[in-house]
């Protein structure tokens, strides 16, 4: 981030804007929340790729190039497109599974957007919380395992989406403790960033995690020989 402060803050502002708009949609038009989340799943990987390109340039001793960071995905559009479609499909299945769990286990009636947290953590809904956490954990693990190193691998090695996804899953299964810790750090840092007023922490935490993810990929596979 010190090597490319302006570029990093630009991407941080993009992540912050996505979270801010998502919060506004949830408060005012909750029926469109899932659609907007789907859009974030489409846009997010391309934004992250710009940060990976910045980190790649820093590592290689190349000058930072804002335009290159914005367009680095264009040579990998086929692989990125397929990977994003897989993630989007998992997200849609996750949304459908959430509705099923909600219908089967939620016991206190439909909450409003202003009382959703109180309703969810009502003692009568403990079964819902347990099942929802388990089902959500499965889908979150699938998304995380598929994407944790696949996107920087596509940028760095121009691999196809299937190879990158399988390599990412293999990295998780070969070092489960390390990858679980890395995933927990991502969640905790993002939660801390969102809890700040206006979710302003995303301005820094978003690009910080993006750059760190490039080094996580390097830690798994090292530079191309």
Number of domains: 1
- What is the CA-atom radius of gyration, in angstroms? 19 Å
**What structural class should be given to the helix and strand makeup?**
mainly alpha
* 3D shape: globular
Q: N-to-C terminal Cα separation, in Å?
A: 26 Å
Major sheet details = none
Strand content: under 5%
Number of strands: 0
Order of helices and strands: HHHHHHHHHH
Q: Helicity level, as a percent range?
A: over 70%
What is the overall number of helices? 10
Report the uncertain regions: none
The overall pLDDT, averaged over residues, is 86
Brief write-up:
With about 220 residues, the chain is mostly helical.
Key terms:
225 residues, mainly alpha, 0% strand
What does this protein look like?
It is a single chain. This protein is mainly α and 225 residues long. It contains ten helices and no strands. The protein has one domain (5-221). The radius of gyration is 19 Å and the shape is globular. The mean pLDDT is 86.
